[in-house]
Amino acid sequence: MALKTYFLQVKEVVVETPDCVTIYFWHPLSEQIKYKAGQFITVIVPIDGKKVRRSYSMSTSPHTDTALGITVKRVLGGLVSNYLNDRVQVGDFLEIVEPLGNFFVEPDAEKSRHLVLFAAGSGITPMMSIIKSVLKMEPESRITLIYGNRSEGSIIFKDKIEELEYKYRERLKVHHIISRPSDYWVGQVGRISQGISIRFMKDSYTDFAKDHFYLCGPEGMMEDVIKGLNIYEVDKSQIHRENFHAPMLDEIHVEETDNSLKTQMVKVIYDGDEFEFEVKPHQSILEAALDLDIDLPYSCQAGMCTACMGKCTEGKVKMDEEEGLTDKEIAQGYILTCVAHPLTAGVVVEMD
What we know:
Keywords: 2Fe-2S, FAD, Flavoprotein, Iron, Iron-sulfur, Metal-binding, Oxidoreductase. Helices cover 19% and strands 33% of the residues.
């Protein structure tokens, strides 16, 4: 699948917190980039002679904002997040890959619904896009946001959230949870846990049989919320999660201690060509291919966008993340090569 890339000029850089910025881009002169509320773009930056990719959700709304914007929180040791926070200025051009992602909401003016959003830290980014879009386009719908942070000063979009809550006071309810509050904090203290999430959902008159739930944040937080939803037998189709913090190999130290993974030969069939190459235990199939300058389709490299999807027709693979695929796709043998490792010899992957 060929993905479209753009070179977008930076329109504005806004400091949201001491370690987080929002970067707004001008649309290309020739077209308006289309995206859905909650989706992400992949940013490609040159670092040490290499092009490094990272995916960031858009905090802007296609229904309320003229510019396209991403919000980037600095990650300790993060190559791209530090580059974007420290070096990007108004007028610069950045290479991006077209918007992608299955974590989104499509507003419908005829709908009357209740969306319950759970976010922690920078997980608020896609939620802002969803909140602005739904409140603007669905006058009969309402939203509950449960938002966790370490301190009051680390709340991204604090003023913007307050403005939205005031403007849509009958339809937007926000619950802040702070884990390390100051002496002046009078709100909820702690983290988003199973018990706290259930209490806030009940206080918001949640209908567990029909409301939809959107989660973005650390894996532990999302698992706790899902445990609470499971108590009320919420159908899986009502639960939507974004794996915001998928690890990247150049930002973490990888130990080759997993005895189940061994160096294997893999064959990839793509666009009529066959490529056979070695995949080491610390590599994904995609990483091994890119190291050999094999031009396979990809975008986010985090198991979110499905641009690198292929079908495993022989052998077995292990995936670090499966959230980007449906249960049906997994059952049919589809994999995401950016997070897939060969478990057996003779793995064959076919890609469109």
